[in-house]
Amino acid sequence: MARFPSGSEERVRGAGREAWATITGYIRGTMFVALVDAIGITIGLLAVGVPLVAPLALLTFLGGFIPIVGATVAGVAAILVTLVSNGLVPALVILGVVLGVQQIEGHLLQPLVMRRAVRLHPLAIVISLSAGGVLAGIPGAVAAVPFVAVINRVAGYLARSGKQPPAPDSCA
Fold first, then answer.
1. 120 FRET partner, CA 20 to 30 A, in 38, 45, 46, 83?
2. Is 6 helix (H, G, I), strand (E, B) or coil?
3. pLDDT for res 116
4. pLDDT by residue (tens digit) across 36-86?
5. Rg over CA atoms, the chain
6. DSSP 167
7. C-beta of residue 136 within 8 angstroms of C-beta of residue 143
8. Is 144 helix (H, G, I), strand (E, B) or coil?
9. DSSP assignment of 45-102, as one string?
10. CB 132: neighbour CB atoms within 10 A?
11. Which string of b and e fits 29-62 if b means at least 16 CB within 10 Å?
């Protein structure tokens, strides 16, 4: 018993391949951006001599998977640990490092890497993040970009691989 109409199995498989490629591209792109965040902040923490560098680096890396707020919250944690352990001036230095890393991520890495990874226009990424955040909070923002990217890629694939319309009946 076929699950799909006859002749459409290859289109369905192709759409699945496109969806999988989009999801893996999104995950790879997000991992790269999160890794750059973690490395940048870790270098700053090591330079200042802050304790708990490894947990803060891990927190920054994991925070990179939560759009907009994740890496910022991790940066605030790094600043607070620095303030408590090393004082005000080192905390201000780490604040500068966090702001610098966030600027590089937000204005350079995120648009370039994610646009290439999910093949969406940066404005579509921003709109989907905003809509996902408004509709479902942080989980919605996390899922919005891959969801929109998968729909975009699958719809494009199905449109490109569509069958030609049947020829008009010549019996008339």
1. 38
2. coil
3. 84
4. 999 999 999 999 999 999 999 999 999 988 877 788 899 999 999 999 999
5. 22
6. P
7. yes
8. helix
9. HHHHT-S-HHHHHHHHHHHTTSTTTHHHHHHHHHHHHHHHHH-HHHHHHHHHHHHHHH
10. 22
11. bbeebbebbbebbbebbeebebeebeebbebbbe
What are the structure tokens assigned to 126, written together? Answer: 């921003």
Distance CA 32, CA 138 (A): 20
Task: Compute the distance between CA of residue 71 and CA of residue 59 in angstroms, rounded to an integer.
Answer: 8
Query: Which is nearest to 129 in space by CA: 8, 26, 37?
Result: 26
Work out the angle between the directed axes of helices 9-48 and 88-104 (0-180°, nearest 10). Answer: 150
Average pLDDT over the chain, rounded to whole? 88
Q: Which two tokens stand for residue 29?
A: 């792109």
How far, rounded to the nearest angstrom, does the alpha carbon of residue 3 sit from its chain's CA centroid? 33
Which amino acid is it at 13? R
Nearest-angstrom CA–CA distance, 136 and 50: 36
Structure tokens at 68: 């907009």
The Cα–Cα gap between 33 and 66 comes to: 11
CA 19 to chain centre: 15
